[in-house]
Protein: Otopetrin 1
Organism: Candidula unifasciata
Amino acid sequence: NTTEESETESCYEDVTLARTASPYLFPCTIIYSIIAAGILYRMYQYVGVKVTQRWPSHTSLTSSNPHGAVSMDCEKANKGLFSGLLVAVFTLIAIATFFVFESRLNYPHTAIKIFFVLEISLILITGSCIMLGMIRFVNLKFLENYLSLDAVLLIISLGGAYIYLSFMLISSASMVEKHGVISILSLAAICVGILESTLQAIFILDGLCRRAENDIQVEAKPGRAIVTFLLVCNLALWVVSMFEIKKTMVVPFHLEFYGILPWNIMLHLCVPLFIYFRFHSAICLSKIWYNAYQKDYSPA
């Protein structure tokens, strides 16, 4: 019996690749389901709808530049792309440093401080660019009564992010005296995260309804560099959020405050939506990047 018990314990204690990767991969199943549901809904919308031909019938599909094809214009996006890639590189370096301190050097407190500083810095940079983008987008034409599936999915994922951040806010505020600096950094990251998520959702929902009103705006493309930068920053934040489970493993006070079962239930329900919010924000920003600078021909 003793031998069997020891074998059973060793089996559960073995560190396998699947067990190591599972905290990072389980949100992907829920995110995949949300994306699949959205795609199926779009397919349902187009069932029985006559689709106009993209290219004229006389144009060869193998032509390098068929008449009527939509070209991708990357004008006015270079500065935002370069700045965003720079931020992404620093993000990857910081994440690598986090894992070095947490796993190799066994300094979890230093590791989590690095992670929180990275997260706060990214959110502050993104938030400031969002406010600048709002100013640049004011002059674009606003389409009324425009509600897309992307907007609905963004609002749903934002709700999950609010729930998750609110629960963490409560536990962090309750553990300030006990855990000191780490709890304060956690509070700061949560507060700026809630504010930035709200601003970003407002900006995206507004941006999805914006179109260029005249040829001058089509040429000038106001705010396109900012949208490009925000797109890359959201991809960086998405990568950071993928390690959210790892962060909660290193930070002790959330589990300590709520207990094992409630905290795990909340993680499995809210973290996928929190991660999806960042991913879907990047998708919406890519649509704004393209659609906002197309001239609107609808009657005034």
